[in-house]
Write a structure and sequence with these properties.
single chain, alpha+beta, Nucleotidyltransferase, domain 5, 5-stranded antiparallel sheet, 10 strands
């Protein structure tokens, strides 16, 4: 639901474009009233258009400066860990802002489906499950080596790919401390490759804005 209690649509705005987006919102809809707390900013325009902004990397501490504080919060560089997992591969990295500082990517072969039935089908299914388990173990090893040593420096850990795969990897007992840094949902991605990991900040840094039907 949107800020006005009506079904809304969600847009995602890069942090560097947020000031311009807010300016254009005011130009289209009139003077803005702002309500905010550490996790949500609600903007209500003179014509009834409303925008509910989910604060990324909460909590937001600069509550006294309104939208200016929100903009500074969204544009601050952070050290963030990333874990991307799908059946076809995985990637683990550390970002400073949008710069990838350290990473490990794995693309293990996972047996595809077969048209054969009976025992043959079951044998392929078992082999495919074993290969996926091996891939998930590799992702957990990489997260242990890359992220855990810098855990106290990480402001957050973000995830992408397949939810079941991510949950399987993070269930590794070694990664229990990492789970305390998790924020946000598992963001959809293609099979993790280096280029997919490098582009991942475009997804998790974007500011989610829920607009009502008048916006």
């Amino acid at each position: 639901m949107s800020a006005a209690g009506l079904p809304g649509r969600i847009v995602r705005v890069p942090p560097d474009r947020l000031p311009g987006w807010l300016d254009r919102f005011a130009e289209r809809h009139g003077a803005l009233d702002v309500e905010l707390d550490q996790t949500t900013v609600r903007v209500l325009a003179a014509d009834g258009a409303a925008a509910t902004i989910t604060v990324p990397f909460p909590p937001m501490s600069e509550l006294g400066d309104g939208l200016a504080g929100l903009i500074r919060h969204t544009q601050r560089d952070r050290l963030v860990g990333a874990v991307l997992v799908r059946r076809g591969g995985w990637a683990v990295g550390i970002f400073a802002g949008s710069e990838l500082l350290d990473s490990k990517v794995g693309s293990p072969y996972v047996q595809g489906t077969t048209k054969a039935g009976g025992w043959s089908q079951q044998r392929y299914a078992r082999r495919r499950g074993q290969q996926a388990a091996h891939a998930y173990a590799g992702a957990a090893d990489a997260a242990t080596r890359i992220l855990l040593p810098r855990l106290t420096e990480l402001e957050a850990v973000v995830t992408g790919g397949d939810r079941a795969g991510v949950e399987t990897v993070l269930a590794d007992v070694r990664l229990a401390p990492l789970r305390t840094r998790l924020i946000g949902p598992v963001l959809p991605t293609p099979d993790p490759r280096l280029r997919v990991l490098q582009a991942f900040p475009d997804r998790y840094l974007a500011v989610a804005i829920n607009l009502n039907e008048l916006a």
